Amino acid sequence: MSQITIHDLHDKLTAKEISAVELTKQMIAHRDAAEGEIHAYLSVSDEAALARAAAVDARIAAGEAISDMAGIPGAVKDNICIKGETCTAASRMLEHWVAPYNATVIEKLEAEDYISLGKTNLDEFAMGSSTENSYFGPSRNPWDTECVPGGSSGGSAAAVAANEAVWALGSDTGGSIRQPASFCGLVGLKPTYGLVSRYGLLAFASSLDQIGPIVKDVTDAAIVLNAIAGHDPRDSTSIPMEKKDYKKALKTDVKGLRIGVPDEFFGPGIKEETKAAIQSALKFYEGEGAEIVPVSIPHIKSGVSVYYIIAPAEASSNLARYDGVGFGFRMPGEDIVDMYIKTRSAGFGKEVKRRIMLGNYVLSAGYYDAYYLKALKVRKLLKEDFDQAFAKCDVIAAPSASGAAFKFGAFSDPLSLYMEDICTVPVNLVGAPSISIPVGFHDGMPLGMQLIGPTLGEERILNAAYAFEQAHPEYTKTAPKGDM
Question: Hey, where are the domains in the chain?
Answer without folding.
Answer: 6-258
